[in-house]
Amino acid sequence: MDNRASALNKRLNTDRVITLIVAFLMIFVAAMQFITFARNNDILAVRRGIHSVFSAIALILLYLGLNRISATGKPFDSKMIGLLRAIAVTIMIGGFLPPFVEGFINITQGKEFVLIFGDIDIFIPMAGVIVGILSEIFAYGNELQEDNDLIA
Question: What is the pLDDT of residue 8?
Fold first, then answer.
């Protein structure tokens, strides 16, 4: 059992480092995209910046979840389930928000607010739905683990 816990912690340490590095890269990319928008009025830079911000938030939440698993040794934990649900909502909002922000920017520039369903990259919110489904699987696993703990 000790070897499995040790191997899990090594993998989690690597995953946490990679997750933090990518999260900070996403924050940097977001800052660069917002600077690009400010300088060149490139509306697509806003979209890329928003996606980067929400990606960074989701990655930071994932980092917290990996910390939680490392500390408890149990992935099926109520706090982990809450973090997965927060990641799911973050991904969904990050997918739906950019076209609306672009529309409001157009309004402030005296242009027309036009929202076309095709402007929403549906695969991003769908990824959020998949993470949400995964959180429900974790909730079920948590119940099974609690039942198993009562028996043992």
Answer: 79
